[in-house]
Structure formats: structure tokens, C-alpha cells
Input
Amino acid sequence: MGEMTAHPTAVIEAGAKIGDGVKIGPYCVVGADVTLCDGVELMSHVVVAGRTTIGERTKIFPFASIGHQPQDLKFHGEASTLSIGADCLIREGVTMNPGTEGGGMTTTVGDRCAFLANSHVGHDCHVGNNVVFSNNVMLAGHCAVGDFAIIGGGAAVIQFARVGAHSFLGGMSGLENDLIPYGMALGNRAHLSGLNIVGLQRRGFSRDNIHDLRRAYRALFAAEGTLAERTADVAQEFADHPIVQEIIAFIRVGGKRSLCTPKEATEA
Output
């Protein structure tokens, strides 16, 4: 892959671990506790601070601030970390913060994620693989985002919320509750508005799987009974459907937030 290259104006503090083939452009700053794995590229004017690890071949564009102390007023300098996976795209002005003592001490981002300009990953968040944040997405602290989730431009996610795998949160939405896997939520404040059918089709889910998901969705958010009762019924009816069971598990695990639901109980 070749040796590391750095522009003469870049500042690389003693102790930083720099892999093979890393490219560090003009006016970048790399802190002493940073690890840049093989093939990472910092375009220019990028600051990577704190106990931060950036995975192979991830590319970071100008004016991103990665690993500076959390925007949590309770933070007192604890040795928390930020870990970013391989093959990620981090565009201009993106900010990502490490964890805190109150949230597990670490923030993690998976592989093959795209963070478009000025999006933010707060402290103690855990973002999966193949996730897309459009411009100006605001992810508050302590959130969890599942694999292949897409968050539209300008959307905000409240602290401690969960965004399920393969879900879609529409642009300018304000999400105050947990969004189920494969679900789609829109609005301020966001409500569940169906399934992420377009995303499922793009990722090659079969017509039968999508049909089963539709049936399960309608049953889960029907007017009759309580959510717990409907969840139990769907879990039994779709016992052999792993995709539906993924939604059931998400609901049953629960979290600090309520579940994002349709505006109308019968909406599907």
C-alpha cells in the first residue's frame, strides 16, 4: 500500500499511530492518542483528537472534527473512546464525539457508513454498518442506529432513541421515539408511516418477505388489543419468519423511549 504521506503543514502529535498508505492533507491535526489504520485519507483541515481509531480506507473531508470532547456538560475528562470502522465516507463539517462515563465510555461507528456534510454523532452512540446520514443530521447522545438505516437531511434524533436496522427516517423529521427495524417515520414530531419498502426492494428482499412484513406490520399496529397482546400474536403467527422476529425482538428489548407508532392505529 505504500508509506504514509503527510503535507508539510499537517501537525501529527508524537504517539499517534499511522498505518500504511495513510494520506494526511494540508493543515490537518492528528492527536497523540489517535490511530489511523491503513489507507485512511484526511483531505485537508481535518482535526482528529482524543482516543480515536479510524478504520481502513475511511476518507474524511475538510473541516470535520472527529474525537473532540463530548458536548455533555457532565464530562470530566474521562478516558473515553471513539471507534470508526472501515471504508466510511465522512464529509465536510461532520462532528463525532467519544463516549462518557455515564454512557459506557465509548462511541462506535461501523463499516461502510456515509456521513454527509455537517451531520453529527453524539457521545455514547452506536451506529451500525452501511448507515447513511444525509446533510445536517443530528444524532443526540446515547442513541443506537441499526445496519442499513438511512436518516434524511436535517433530521434530529432524541437522546437514548433507537433507530432500527433497514429503517428510513425522513428529512427534517424529529424522532422522539424508537423506530422499528424496516420501518419508515416522517414528520415533526415523527410518526411511523409504514415500511421502508423502497429500501427493502433496493437491497434485494423478496416479494414474499415484503408481503409478510406488510401483514405483520398491519397486525402489530391494528386497533384491537394492547401492543403487548398484538406483539405476542404476531410473534406466534410469524414464528418462522426471521425478519418479522427481528422487529418483535426490537419491541420486546425496549429502551428508554416509547415506540414510534402511526398517527392512526389502523394505518398501514
User: Anything to note?
Assistant: The mean pLDDT is 96. Helices lie at 197-202, 207-220, 227-237, 242-253.
